[in-house]
Amino acid sequence: MYLCTIEFCGHYDTQCDYPRMGFQRQIKVFEIELLVDGGGSVTLDGQKYKLHENTLLLCKPNQYKQSVFPFKCLFIHLYFEEENEFYHLLKNAPDYYQLIDVMQYRVIFENFINHYYAHQQKDSYFLQSKLLELFYCLKRDAERNSRYIDIYKTNHNELINKALQFINSHYKEPLTLQVLSEYVGYSPNYFHHVFTHIIGKTPQEYLLETRIKNAKLMLIDNQLSIAEISYECGFSSQSYFTMQFRKQTYSTPHQYRKNYQQRYHNETII
């Protein structure tokens, strides 16, 4: 099975590799970057995006890119012939992804990179299967993230972006519609309408997904108990956390932790 040429992959930390602002360059191949720590920004063909944890960049051939540090990411660089169906899939996908199920992407990237350096076989079935999984996730999440990119295009949408950043930074707190609407200066009803239209879900649905997303990240850390995670992620009780987690993932937090650890162990020894 051959999907494309794997040019390069790995871990990238701007503070170690390039401590100053990056220069503008033209992209030659597809560069897929999963941000694991942020603080900087990137400009693609004149459009500026903030780089923060749990976002993904899909940089495409012939785009012009300039980065402002610092940030850390996992990256995969791929070359396709233009007649390849996956070339067009990635070419038409959004440049910027705000991820909900970031752990699914994280596992794909980490297993891909670990296998690449352990076996040095660019055309292995394992690597190609991980790429198929990644392409599926990017296609699945493309529609939602196309709407998310619209946040950057008008002053009106900048206020919604402000609300998203506030939710991402304060999800541990008891955020109500009133609190969020007052923060951006809208009435509760109008804020609810605009937010839902742009993001594709209500403010409370987005808040819940953000809490679950962060809970998934914490569940891989055995030093934290389920009760501690429920508190750290803003849930009123462990039982309520378990109920909402089961609705979102079809498993309990304990089952999710156990399944992740088993899957990660199995894939890293292949």
Explain how this protein is built.
There is one protein chain. This protein has 270 residues and is α+β, with helices and mostly antiparallel strands. The protein folds into two domains: 5-146, Jelly Rolls (Sandwich); 154-266, Orthogonal Bundle (Arc Repressor Mutant, subunit A), CATH 1.10.10.60. The protein is 52% helix and 18% strand. The protein contains twelve helices and nine strands. The strands form two sheets. It has a five-stranded antiparallel beta sheet with strand order 1-8-3-6-9. The chain has a four-stranded antiparallel beta sheet with strand order 2-7-4-5, with no helix packed on it. β4 (41-44) and β5 (47-50) form a beta hairpin. α3 (102-119) runs antiparallel to α4 and α6 (155-170) packs across α7. It is globular. The two termini are 18 Å apart. The model has no long low-confidence stretch (mean pLDDT 86).
Attribute tags:
single chain, alpha+beta, Jelly Rolls, Arc Repressor Mutant, subunit A, 9 strands
Q: Can you summarize this structure?
A:
The chain is α+β, with helices and mostly antiparallel strands and 270 residues long. The protein has 12 helices and 9 strands.
The tally of domains stands at 2
Shape: globular
What fold name goes in the CATH topology slot of the largest domain? Answer: Jelly Rolls
Q: In CATH terms, what is the architecture of the largest domain?
A: Sandwich
- Helicity level: 40-55%
Task: Order the strands across the largest sheet as they lie in space.
Answer: 1-8-3-6-9
| Structural class label | alpha+beta
